Amino acid sequence: xxxxxxxxxxxxxxxxxxGEGWMLLDVRTNDEWAGGHIAGSVHIPMDQLMQRLDxxxxxxxxxxxxxxxxxxxxxxxxxxxxxxxxxxxxxxxxANSGLPIES
Length: 103
Known about the structure:
The chain has 103 residues and is of the alpha/beta class. It has helices at 14-19, 30-34, 68-79, 90-96; strands at 8-9, 23-26, 42-43, 59-63, 83-87.
């Protein structure tokens, strides 16, 4: 668990969640996104989340660079009645696990 009872998943668990219909939500900035992201992820920067909440699915894996921002987003989404988890270690943990990044 991460901060305020936000559940986390490791990089190796993401594919299974996505296979079950979970949305992969990248909340990093536009520049960070342009530098590389996980294939199939949806980009909604954290500062746009409130205005774009209708684009967020009911079950979400949240992603940022190291896991701090996405943990806050997951906590917020859970408070809104969604089921959200945080990618532990963010996209850096993903890349360090040898998983692909696309640009």
